[in-house]
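Backbone-to-sequence.
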């Protein structure tokens, strides 16, 4: 006997337990996949070579905004600043 059972990892999601995610800018509820590419400098790369690191995220189909929580935490501050945040 060899225990070659394939474990099927099926994640069952109960839609009732989910919350709708909407665009933080325009409240649109639809998103399109987008990929952000980060360049890893040879100076800090473990291999000593430049590397391109793709980061999958989702972009609002309406206004193109990417909600902050789609970004890895380290990148949230690196996002281009919005200009409409001023309190006057
Ligand atoms: Zn939007």
């Amino acid at each position: 006997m060899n225990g070659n059972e394939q474990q099927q990892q099926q994640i069952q999601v109960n839609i009732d337990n989910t919350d709708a995610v909407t665009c933080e800018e325009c409240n649109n509820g639809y998103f399109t996949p987008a990929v952000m590419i980060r360049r890893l400098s040879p100076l800090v790369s473990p291999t000593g070579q430049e590397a391109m690191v793709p980061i999958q995220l989702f972009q609002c189909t309406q206004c193109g905004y990417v909600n902050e929580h789609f970004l890895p935490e380290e990148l949230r501050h690196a996002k281009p600043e919005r200009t409409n945040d001023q309190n006057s």
